[in-house]
Amino acid sequence: MAQAGVPLPALEYPPVPINKKYVYLLCAIAALGGILFGFDLVIISGTVAFFQAHFGLSELETGLAVGCINLGAAVGAVMGGWLCDRLGRKKLLMICAVLFAMTGGGTGWAMSFNMFIAFRMLSGVAVGAAALVCPIYLAEISPASMRGTTVSFYQLSIVVGILLAYLSNYLLLNVEDNWRWMFSSQSIPALLFYFSLFTASESPRWLVRSGREFEAQIVLERIGGLDYSLAEQEQIEQSFADKSDTGVSELFKKEVRHIVFIGVMIAVFSQIVGQNSIFSYAPELFKKAGMAQDSAFMQSIIIGITNFVSTFVAIFTIDKVGRKKLLQYGSFLLFADAIALAAAFYMQLSGIWVLVFVLAFIGFYSATLGPVTWVTLSEIFPNRIRGNAMAVATLALWIANFFTTSLFPVMNQYFGVPVTFLIHAGVCLGYFLFIRNKVPETRGRSLEEIEKLLEKS
Q1: Please, where are the H alpha helices in 43-177?
Q2: What pTM value is reported for the model?
């Protein structure tokens, strides 16, 4: 029996027995949305020369054709924030799957340039909504100890989609109407995504928000058992208590507006460091370095493989090293590599040097900024505003993506590739300084703990 005034020793509880197989199953299903995201964005890289000739496009029109998907994605981000809070994460993912299936064939078999643009923008709506809801869903179903890894799997799925797009372009290169079949090929994984979603659970945090606590408890119990379910549900309910205002106006309140600003800046910087210039115009860059067309397409596949392999660096380190350090390392390495690329094109070095620096750039991005951006954005926003805040951040992301993708042909024409990559280098250095001074570390904390931490900062 403890003596009066003597504190009892702290009790130690065994670790929560997380059902990792179930969590990874849900992640795999949601990750199919990431595959379609990456596939849809990059499939156009192998089609540019062909549809440009087919429709007789100028450089400005070509930039619009490549970049217009980002305008659609911006619309998808705005609509997605509202829809994922009202319909739920799962239903919105199903809508995205249907759009992906429809617009692949629609873009590929467009009879006019205006029809091409319309379908490409509608496809962007699916990309923008999926880019918003997939990481939200993954973050909300994942235990804190697994969240960095599971949300990083979303970036891995994007990378897989990019690799599949490059491979599809290469295999269909010599087929009649090749560019039409390249676009149409995305309908197959889209249908797989749609039917697999019937087996997925809804986000427990959205269920609590919607007053469906019993259903949330069932999902949480399946993830980590009864004790985990009760503890998590109590934290989630507290995060919504006495905070009925969940509209857009909530984003401007003093305690959260600085969080929204950080999220927007992370989203914008992630798109303007230079990776879009490489992913969307890889074959064209390699041809400028003196490579033949077939060789340039093969180099694009090597980019996809590098992208895929490098993403595993983030998956295995993000829950150990932390989000902030990976963002800092990545932005500085990209700064150095962008300068190297500018020098390589300026001095007209052989194609092998361009390939080396391009692969290094993709490797650095895929190991750091690529996956960590989505992890950080999915974590930093409070539960009650996550949908709307993520919508604002991803809207900014797609607008930045549109301008960087659309302006690359124009900047290349007027300034040349070396100056374009010097500009990217300056952006990378600016991002490094922003991360060091403004971005917090969120590793190892529950979403509700992160909310309390950031609202006090």
Answers
A1: 48-55, 59-86, 89-108, 113-141, 144-171
A2: 0.73
